[in-house]
Write a structure and sequence with these properties.
Residues 3-213 form the NAD-dependent epimerase/dehydratase domain. It is a single chain. By secondary structure, this protein is an alpha/beta fold. The protein has helices at 11-22, 47-54, 77-97, 115-118, 140-159, 185-192, 200-217, 235-249, 253-260, 275-281, 289-298, and strands at residues 2-6, 26-31, 40-41, 60-63, 102-108, 126-128, 163-168, 219-224, 270-272. The strands form two sheets. The protein has a seven-stranded parallel sheet, with helices on both faces. It is globular. It binds nicotinamide-adenine-dinucleotide. The site of nicotinamide-adenine-dinucleotide has 30 residues, from helix 1, strand 2, helix 3 and strand 5.
Length: 316
């Protein structure tokens, strides 16, 4: 299959493009920044660049390029609209004209987080699946990603272009833009595997599953995150005393953490539920919190990447 991958110099895009080539697909990478997986350097918001990329031939598009959370502090609002919304539209129109059999877009769980959820105002954790509504994204990143999701849905409905949207949770390797005092970067990431993170390898596999199921399902929107060990009826306990809930599921977690000088979260305010993706496109993340604990137990390398020095290629 000939696949156009946008954002091919980025963290997800470069892993995804390499994986596709490994499987024998022909890949064209389109990115603002040069990179080993990128053949066309240009913007998705520039229709001539999109045309140049499609000239290589494309049976499917995986659209991972975009401005995201870290860009909020350094980019004008208009750029978010131009790149995340107009750029997605330019790609959809080109994909329709090329009669592509799949259009997969990387979206974000962040668009489900309104201010109340972010500030953890409730007295229970919020259990988030694809039915969560109303959606009130709290910034231009989420607002433009939500608009782009709508465009993918529209092209599936109106033009029969099979589309899959993946609302992925965190997989970035760098430090959090709002680091938690006292906790190390790896400790923060390990904790997030409980409720709001996945490995970049699992993100790649989710995109592969989306690509191979798009035609069959016509349109789908899924949360992509590591499966949480919790159940919905634990939401109040998670907010009140997350450590007690974690101990129920993983009796040795506290001890394993203590050996590293790590800390478990005291309270958890939200949980992403990826079970619809498993039921519909057969994708389930391999790396979960149990895998993190197993690495601690056996002194194996951690099953996720932490690289505090990572900088998005377009910002270098
Ligand atoms: N990193 C995360 O934790 C995370 C979480 C949820 C969703 N996402 C989404 O995943 C996607 C990939 O993110 P990433 O972590 O690989 O980020 P990244 O910054 O490493 O990669 C994004 C790539 O997109 C490119 N890009 C930006 N604007 C472009 C444009 N106008 N035209 C062409 N290329 C452009 C950048 O140069 C970069 O190489 C993004 O759409 C992001 O919103 C990321």
């Amino acid at each position: 299959m000939r696949v156009l991958v946008t954002g091919s110099s980025g963290w997800l895009g470069r892993h995804f493009a390499a994986r596709l080539r490994q499987d024998g697909h022909r890949v064209t990478g389109l990115d603002l920044a040069a990179g080993p997986e990128t053949q066309v350097v240009g913007s998705v918001a520039d229709r001539r660049a999109v045309e140049r990329a499609f000239a290589f031939g494309a049976d499917a598009v995986v659209h991972a390029a975009g401005l995201h959370q870290p860009d909020l502090v350094r980019t004008r609002l208009q750029n978010f609209v131009d790149i995340n919304v107009s750029g997605t539209l330019a790609l959809l129109e080109a994909a329709k004209a090329a009669q592509c059999s799949a259009f997969v877009m990387t979206s974000t769980t962040s668009l489900m987080i309104d201010r109340a959820i972010r500030e953890e105002r409730g007295d229970a954790a919020v259990w988030l699946d694809e039915s969560h509504a109303p959606l009130n994204p709290r910034n231009i990143y989420g607002t433009t990603k939500l608009a782009a999701e709508g465009l993918v849905r529209l092209f599936a409905q109106e033009h029969g272009l099979p589309g899959v949207v993946l609302r992925t949770s965190r997989f970035f390797p760098e430090d959090d833009d709002r680091p938690t005092a006292l906790l190390s970067g790896p400790n923060i990431k390990a904790n997030e595997f409980l409720n709001r993170r996945l490995s970049v390898e699992d993100a790649v596999e989710a995109h592969l599953a989306a690509l191979s199921h798009a035609q069959q399902i016509g349109f789908g929107l899924f949360i992509a995150s590591a499966p949480p060990p919790f159940t919905r009826d634990e939401v109040a306990d998670l907010k009140r005393d997350a450590r007690a809930v974690i101990a129920r599921h993983f009796p040795d977690a506290a001890e394993l953490y203590a050996r590293r000088g790590w800390q478990l979260p005291r309270s958890i305010g939200r949980v992403y539920d990826p079970s619809l993706a498993e039921a519909t496109i057969g994708w389930r993340a391999k790396t979960d919190f149990a895998a993190v604990l197993e690495a601690l137990r056996t002194d194996a390398p951690l099953p996720f990447v932490h690289d505090a020095s990572y900088v998005s290629p377009k910002d270098r």
